[in-house]
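Researcher: Let's do a round of design. I'm pasting the structure tokens now; please hold your answer until I've finished.
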């Protein structure tokens, strides 16, 4: 097997296209994984059965598989993106991932670095070259933005397209944003998603693109609304069935090697529970009113803990700011949150 091949393209023009597929069962499993008992999301015969609005965040882990997957999953590894100067490089065929000796965790996310490996069929030559962006110690999952543009079918085959949209210097590293769109085969866009990462220690790169996300300023007054939700002890065990099989969220020994006493909850599982609380409180749980949600990760959550979602109204119609605290510790686990809804009268 040959080593990784890289294709250099102009900044901002990289487009990764990966097929994804899901069915009704996937929608139900996801809804259960974020603590939903709403029949609209867990009962396929309900007249208003639909995908919960944040479901698409799992598709980039799941791909087209309907089985358990290795971590990182093939679709994640196949679309790794590195940055070098004013060019982007995409890795193609010829990859293999394994867990590195040093595992780094921040917030709710395990941050894996892919190591070189020797391919016996290739004279022992390392098949994973150093990424062009130099001195990256670790990639931190900084936040997520998800925008709903159209009703998602309850089953289907689609594709995720996108790539790196911007890279900027921040502190002792780089702040990187990846923009992806979920489309059908005809090109209709259903969702637009932004994943923000902080590349600690990154050097030898050029900034490009306009930063897509900014932090909202949280009010200093008390929140207008609060909602609590207690996570099941099995929260991460159930959520992983949607496609993110990172052992950090299940395996106690693996969690200890990463610096935790116990497995922690997936960041996007926390996102799902948060979105459910917001939608139930502010929109009667109606998926049709969901427009967009943005947040930043701040600290990890442990299965069995209680999330306290605090909500503030703004001067803009159907706009709400929010943050999430862990009741047992008082720590903020999700910060700088912003939710936009469609007005009920538009339905």
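Researcher: That's everything. Go ahead.
Model: Designed sequence:
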């Amino acid at each position: 097997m040959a080593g990784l091949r890289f294709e250099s393209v102009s900044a901002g023009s990289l487009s990764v296209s990966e097929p994804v597929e899901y069915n009704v069962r996937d929608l139900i499993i996801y809804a259960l994984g974020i603590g939903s008992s709403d029949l609209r999301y867990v009962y396929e015969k309900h007249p208003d059965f639909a995908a919960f609005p944040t479901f698409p965040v799992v598709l980039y882990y799941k791909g087209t598989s309907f089985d358990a997957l290795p971590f990182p999953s093939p679709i994640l590894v196949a679309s790794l993106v590195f940055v070098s100067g004013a060019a982007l490089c995409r890795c193609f065929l010829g990859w293999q991932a394994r867990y590195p000796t040093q595992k780094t965790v921040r917030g709710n996310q395990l941050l894996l670095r892919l190591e070189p490996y020797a391919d016996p069929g290739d004279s022992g030559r390392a098949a994973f070259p150093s990424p062009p962006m130099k001195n990256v110690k670790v990639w931190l999952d900084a936040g997520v933005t998800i925008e709903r543009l159209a009703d998602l079918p309850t089953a289907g085959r689609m594709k995720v397209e996108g790539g790196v949209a911007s890279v900027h210097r921040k502190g002792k590293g780089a702040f990187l944003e990846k923009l992806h769109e979920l489309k059908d085969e005809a090109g209709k866009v259903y969702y637009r998603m932004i994943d923000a990462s902080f590349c600690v220690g990154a050097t030898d790169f050029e900034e490009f693109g306009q930063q897509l996300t900014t932090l909202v300023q949280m009010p200093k007054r008390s929140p207008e609304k609060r909602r609590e939700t207690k996570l099941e002890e099995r929260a991460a065990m159930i959520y992983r069935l949607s496609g993110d099989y990172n052992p950090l969220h299940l395996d106690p020994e693996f969690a200890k090697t990463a610096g935790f006493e116990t497995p922690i909850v997936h960041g996007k599982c926390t996102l799902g529970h948060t979105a459910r609380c917001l939608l139930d409180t502010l929109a009667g749980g109606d998926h049709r009113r969901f427009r967009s949600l943005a947040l930043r990760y701040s600290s990890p959550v442990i299965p069995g803990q209680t999330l306290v979602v605090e909500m503030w109204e703004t001067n803009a119609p159907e706009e709400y700011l929010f943050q999430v605290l862990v009741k047992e510790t008082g720590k903020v686990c999700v910060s700088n949150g912003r939710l936009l809804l469609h007005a009920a009268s538009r339905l």
